[in-house]
Amino acid sequence: MRIQVVIIGAGPAGLTLGRLLELNGVDAVILEQRRGDYVLSRIRAGVIEWGAVELLDSIGAGRRMHAEGLVHHGIEMSFDGDRQRVDFTDLVGKQVMVYGQTEVTRDLMDLSEGKRIYEAEAVEIHDFDGSPYVTYRKDGQTHRIDCDFIAGCDGFHGVTRKSVPRGAIVNYERVYPFGWLGVLSDVPPVSEELIYAHHERGFALCSQRSLTRSRYYVQVQEGEKVEDWSDDRFWDELRRRLNPETAEAMKTGSSIEKSIAPLRSFVAEPLRFGKLFLAGDAAHIVPPTGAKGLNLAMSDVAILGAALIEACVEKSTAGINAYSSRVLDRIWKSERFSWWMTSLLHTFPDNTEFDRRMQRTEFEYIAASRVAQQSLAENYVGLPI
Predict the structure, then answer these.
(1) Is 262 part of the annotated catalytic residue set?
(2) Which residues, listed in sequence order, are joined to residue 276 by a DSSP beta bridge?
(3) Residue 64 maps to which CATH number?
(4) Are residues 206 and 181 in the same domain?
(5) Residue 341 CB-density burial (10 A; 0-12 exposed, 13-18 middle, 19+ buried)
(6) Which of 133, 176, 196, 323 is catalytic?
């Protein structure tokens, strides 16, 4: 096969990029090592910045999101039971949409008519500094696709970043000494907005997927195992970390899905290598505290899509030459915000009493300062793409 762009990875980033290219007359194919139903089974983020909402609208993927998603005008923060609401609409005139990443992926799958190849095994990238091509195996046969450009949207553990020579890339990383235990349950949310809670026992988050389905998290120590957490133990621990009124109002039920996610901050530089580009989790990871993972991926592919369209249709290299520096500027700002939220709200095993007083003082400053709340709101709803 000969094609203009090969996209590796059929998550939201790869599917969005494919749709952008499709709508602008660029011939592309998406390779995905997993089955489509496996991709849809992954439980991920649920908060979408308004810039990402507008991007999905622009490619025709927003109808169900607007019908079933929940517009949130703020969040609640809690520190050892003391509560503070941050009103995004009042502070910065913007909102966010609560709508599961799985549903975004489903909408994109249903929408796009572009070429997608699932269960593409043993994907290898060749000659991306010259005449690029990609090989893969499917149904026992090896296939080759010659192309003009390759977009790596295949996640943190994917093949694209691993294909870059070690000396050509620099990785910046911080691994946090804890994880998030998440539970999905068909119970009504305890609050109309997300609650971010700091407690001496650890962080907690009350989130939601709909008016009848909730997603809750508690911070757990490194090395914890899901099987050690019964539903009853989880609910008891979550209630301990919340304001007493919130804990009393909470409805509990059986878990639909339960998993532990490790936390890390990670950025690779640069993100262009000849005719190979990295986007989404292949390029960066953020701790989920700032609700930035999916949103950063969407901003990456918005910029990469425009650059590839310019290169393929207008025969200009200006966009692809600027891609890495443009997206890295926004990535590092989002990394900073996610790191700051994580540092404020979690307990760290090596924290001293001084550190805890600094966390407490930071929360009190936010509660007392409109300017501090504006900064938080500006970053949470999303910096301009």
Answers:
(1) no
(2) 150, 273
(3) 3.50.50.60
(4) yes
(5) buried
(6) 196
